[in-house]
Amino acid sequence: MKAQHANSYYAASANLQLDYPQLKGDQQADVCVVGAGITGATTALELASKGYKVILLEGEGAGWGASGRSGGQAIFGWASEQSTLEKLMGKDDAKKMWDLSVEALAVTKANINKHKIDCDWQDGQIHVAIKDRHVTELKAWHEQLSTDYGYDQLEYWNRDKLESQLSSPRYLGGMFDPNSGHLHPLNYTLGLVKAAELAGAEIYEDSKVTKIEHGSKVSVTTASGSVTCSHVVLACNAYMEGLNSKLESRVMPVGTYICATKPLGEQRIRELIANNMAVCDINFVLDYYRCSGDHRMLFGGRVSYSGIEPRDLAKTMKQRMDWVFPQLADEQVEFAWGGNVGITINRAPHFGRIAPNVYFAQGFSGHGIAATGLAGQLMAESIMATSERFDIFEKIPHMPFPGGRLLRTPALVLAMSYYRLRDLL
Question: What is the value of pTM for the model shown?
Answer without folding.
Answer: 0.94
